[in-house]
Specification:
This is Adhesin. Pfam families: SpaA. Keywords: Secreted, Signal. Belongs to the serine-aspartate repeat-containing protein (SDr) family. It is a single chain. The chain is mostly beta strands and 583 residues long. It has six domains: 82 residues, Immunoglobulins (Immunoglobulin-like, Sandwich); 89 residues, Immunoglobulins (Immunoglobulin-like, Sandwich); 89 residues, Immunoglobulins (Immunoglobulin-like); 89 residues, Sandwich (Immunoglobulin-like), CATH 2.60.40.10; 89 residues, Immunoglobulin-like, CATH 2.60.40.10; 89 residues, Immunoglobulins (Immunoglobulin-like), CATH 2.60.40.10. The protein is built from no helices and 41 strands. The protein has a four-stranded antiparallel beta sheet with strand order 2-1-3-4, with no helix packed on it. A four-stranded antiparallel beta sheet has the order 7-6-9-10, with no helix packed on it. A four-stranded antiparallel beta sheet has the order 14-13-16-17, with no helix packed on it. A hairpin with a 4-residue loop joins strand 13 and strand 14.
């Protein structure tokens, strides 16, 4: 050995003559010696044909000469240097299965980090690096196999002087225990990508692992998911699209080499919502309690809704199609909507369709008149009224029925007067008209109760006749006395024998004759009569008088020409037989 001086056994040499012919072949013994005897005189070369492992083979032959007459053995000391290079063989295997891995690339870096060489494992998972100088090295994995974790730490090794064997390095790689998923969100019909959809990734226990949102390309990528089963849950859909109702299950398997691609289709919403707001046309106040029907294009009622205290009613989940909104119950005091409101639910609607429906207050009103007796409250039939507007124009004329009622319909907004034009017999006519007003939005008929008092006076008509021939008797004088005997009227019959007393208050009276017609007996007994409340006709009293059976004569004597009365003239009164009755 060149450095240590140790003897080297087993080195084989050839002894070649000048013509390179092998004369003999020897191998060093345990003492490092080999003896060649009986060499003829001449020039030779000692050629090392087999060196020892770990040693450099002798590069140049050693020349020597056998001379004539040599008495001593020629001694040749041959020094060999130990090898100063070595080789490494890498074997790359799967950690679990020990299956060899082809195509893994390594760099061999010296202790200063300089890349000495770069190798890739073959189909047997091997890569050999030869002629590495003595020194410290690192084996750095620069390209791993798909589905395998790249070696994170370098493998250190040393090439020592005199290495006789190839350094064998077995490098194990674990399969990847994580994977990636790329979601692509598209419209089911058009395949247009959908940006802004939010997903949760949940593990088998339902725990949220991460949350992602699709980008402008409709994509969202989730990296470094551990091996296991997962669910993709859509948390926020896009406006106008149905949210995914079922989660999408997927699995990350050990050693996955590619990103798991999940294409998820969303359908556009095929239903829509309608929000109705019902308001007063004039003051815009919300109207609660208005009932609408939603009818499809065939007139079939799909649903029925009623506005709330905010005047709103919502109809949800209407299928795509054409509809009309029909008001079926308006509020009291408001005109019902005459025409339906058409609308259409379109696919992919993102917002509720809103309608503001205005209702006008009713601008006409009704009046119901009830005519009753003031005292008994009994209904009065056949009372005739005129309804007059603020200018005095008669706009209606009505007559009460047997229930004392009369209705006037569809009076326009304004002020009116109810004028009684025909009063029932026995009742006082209404002195003043009844004023009333029809206001906008009146919901019920205006009730007018009109009371009439019975007439509380009456009339009496006296007819004075001759008892026998019934001739009318003029100039009979009567007193009307009340129950207390007080004279309330004094009357005289006319040439028709008649006398009237009007406006006698209700009560009991006596007709007392205070002066009979000439030639008739004066009525001895007064005639009692009664004026009753509500009398519709004059009380007729026929009073008969008997002619007197005695009489008086008054003679008046006058001058024929001057008509001057003449005093002192004496007459006899004789009866039919000429007998003097008196003087």
């Amino acid at each position: 050995d060149k450095e240590s001086g140790a003897v080297l056994a087993g080195v084989t040499f050839e002894v070649q003559d000048e013509k390179d012919k092998v004369v003999t072949k020897v191998t060093t013994d345990k003492e490092g010696q080999a003896t060649i005897s009986d060499l003829p005189v001449g020039k030779y070369k000692l050629v090392e044909v087999e060196s020892l492992p770990g040693y450099k083979k002798l590069a140049k032959p050693v020349s020597f000469e056998i001379k004539k007459g040599m008495t001593e053995v020629l001694s040749l000391k041959v020094e060999n240097e130990q090898l100063d290079k070595g080789s490494v063989e890498i074997t790359k295997v799967d950690k679990d299965s020990q299956k060899v891995l082809e195509g893994v690339t390594f760099e061999v870096q010296d202790e200063k980090g300089k890349v000495v060489t770069k190798v890739t494992t073959d189909k047997e998972g091997k890569a050999k690096i030869s002629d590495l100088s003595v020194g410290n090295y690192k084996l750095v994995e620069v390209e791993s196999l798909p589905g395998y974790k790249k070696l994170t730490e370098s493998v250190s090794f040393e090439i020592k002087k005199g290495m006789t064997e190839v350094l064998s390095l077995k490098v194990e790689n674990e399969q990847l225990d994580k994977g990636s998923v790329e979601i692509t969100k598209v419209d089911k019909d058009s395949q247009k990508v959908l940006e802004g959809v939010v997903f949760e990734v949940q593990d088998e226990q339902g725990k949220v692992v991460t949350e992602v949102k699709t980008d402008k390309n409709g994509k969202a990528k989730i990296s470094d998911l551990s091996v296991g089963k997962y669910k993709l849950v859509e948390k926020e859909s896009l406006p106008g699209y149905k949210k995914l109702t079922e989660p999408v299950s997927f699995e990350i398997k050990k050693g996955m080499t590619e990103v798991l691609s999940l294409k998820i289709e969303n359908e556009m919403v095929d239903t829509g919502n309608v929000e109705i707001t019902k308001i007063d046309k004039d003051n815009k106040a919300p109207l609660a309690g208005v009932v609408f029907e939603v009818q499809d294009d065939k007139g079939k009622v799909v649903t029925k809704v009623t506005t709330d205290k905010a005047g709103k009613a919502t109809v949800s989940d209407l299928s795509v199609g054409k509809y009309k909104l029909v008001e079926v119950e308006s509020l009291p005091g408001y005109k019902k909507l005459e025409k339906p409101v058409p609308f259409e639910i379109k696919k992919g609607m993102t917002k509720s369709l809103t309608f503001t429906v205005e209702n006008e207050m009713v601008d006409t009103g009704n009046v119901e008149i009830t005519k009753i007796d003031k005292d008994s409250k009994a209904p009065l039939e056949n009372v005739v009224f005129e309804v007059r507007d603020s200018k005095g124009k008669v706009v209606a004329k009505v007559t009460t029925d047997k229930e004392g009622k009369a209705n006037v319909s569809d009076l326009s907004i304004g002020k009116y007067e109810l004028v009684e034009v025909e009063t029932p017999a026995g009742y006082k006519p209404l002195e003043k008209p009844v004023s009333f007003e029809i206001e906008k939005g009146r919901v019920t008929a205006l009730q007018l109760t009109v009371e009439n008092e019975l007439v509380d006076t009456g009339n009496i008509e006296i007819t004075k006749v001759d008892k026998e021939n019934k001739d009318a008797l003029a100039d009979a004088v009567f007193e009307i006395q009340d129950a207390a005997g007080q004279v309330v009227a004094k009357i005289t019959t006319d040439k028709k024998g008649q006398a009237q007393v009007t406006n006698l208050s209700v009560g009991t009276y006596k007709l007392v004759e205070v002066k009979a017609p000439k030639g008739y007996k004066q009525l001895v007994d007064p005639i009692t009569f009664q004026i009753e409340k509500g009398m519709t006709k004059s009380l007729a009293l026929t009073v008969e008088n008997e002619m007197l059976d005695k009489g008086n004569v008054e003679v008046t004597k006058v001058d024929k020409d001057s008509q001057k009365v003449l005093e002192g003239v004496v007459f006899e009164v004789q009866d039919e037989q000429g007998k003097v009755v008196t003087e």
